[in-house]
Predict the structure.
Amino acid sequence: MKMCDCNASVEHQDIRHRILSHSVAAPSPLNIQPWSVQLKEPLILDLFLDTERFLPGIDPTFRQVYISSGAFIENLDIAAREAGYRAEVSLFPFSWPGTSLDPDQPVARIELTADDHMVPDPLFSFLHTRYTNRRIYTPQEIPPGTIYSLAGSFNQQFTSFGFSAEPSFRKELAGYLKRAMEIELADSERLAEHLSYIRLTHQTRSGQQDGYGSSELGLTGITGWLSGIRLRLCPAGSKTRCAKALLIRLTQKQADSAAAFGWIATKGNFRHDQVRAGRAYERVHLTAASLGLSLHTMTPILEPYPGMEELCHKFRDLIGIPDTHTVQMLFRLGFSVPGSPSVRRPVKDLVMTPCNMTEGISRAHHPAVTN
Ligand SMILES: Cc1cc2nc3c(=O)[nH]c(=O)nc-3n(C[C@H](O)[C@H](O)[C@H](O)COP(=O)(O)O)c2cc1C
């Protein structure tokens, strides 16, 4: 189906692989890493979505995978600058998909050009230190200057940043987020998707390349130990129910400890809006990392699951977003002890080359359900 360049020089292969090794540090829902890259002429890359990594239950409109492509592109752009290359990004180079899913065409074509005048982006240093911190945050307030830095960290068309640290707002939203998690996990398909990527009772082991373990989930120290014991003592046959209860309890604690909430909204909800929101989100998260601020995305309330309608209305009223806008990302912010970064696939696994295209890339996902 897809063509690639068999004769690219080793030098060009190397620079693209080097840049991609930074792109893969991008965030994605449940760390699924739904990206596939095709190397074309010496300095051209096409980014595709890897449909075998989709989460049809949790991400029924595929909005989240497009957002994570935006984050991937942002990392790529920053890494290219650092290497002295200009990255020209053409979103949906063959046709504008509107709101439809079109996995056969690239989300973006990226053309690299060597340029001695490229100014490195200071956020480069944080590509591998940015991570989602799901631990409980301290009551420390976020200084106003930090918020200005987050709000000014990106410049994407029709994409805006919102924020509130107001105590009654936080309390009300924390309640909504717990309820949203209950609704998300009430569906067995969505719950199974969670449990196939989150390893609740153990840490990430070497060899695992996606998802995350108990420490990335914030279950560390005595709390982590107690949760592990509780799950193990849970009668066989009820383990899924116990895991679900644990995830909901944890969401409540996490949301309650937020020092503030932030969100990214777009005017319109086309695929290109979602990709741009992903680029903006990645810059906000990298900027937070550069300022020593923890960030944790909490998206269930943004999804159109049956039963979410009323909560969604209340949430939109609370943040005062107009009907013309879509909230693409919602996250809590605060200070915390360091959390744990999650694993990634090696670049070679997502690059389509003449060899692995003919042999087929093994993308089988091996679930780690707790039952
Ligand atoms: C579109 C999107 C939605 C996400 N939703 C959630 C969420 O609801 N809850 C959560 O804990 N993390 C969420 N995340 C964070 C991912 O789980 C995280 O990025 C991934 O596990 C990789 O880990 P890292 O961010 O630490 O590198 C989301 C990330 C993206 C890009």
Observations:
- The longest strand covers residues 325-334.
- Residues 1-7, 358-371 have pLDDT under 50 and may be disordered.
- Residues 27-31, 64, 67-68, 71, 131-132, 134, 212, 296-300, 341-342 surround flavin mononucleotide (CB under 6 Å).
- Residues 55 and 113 are 35 Å apart (CA to CA).
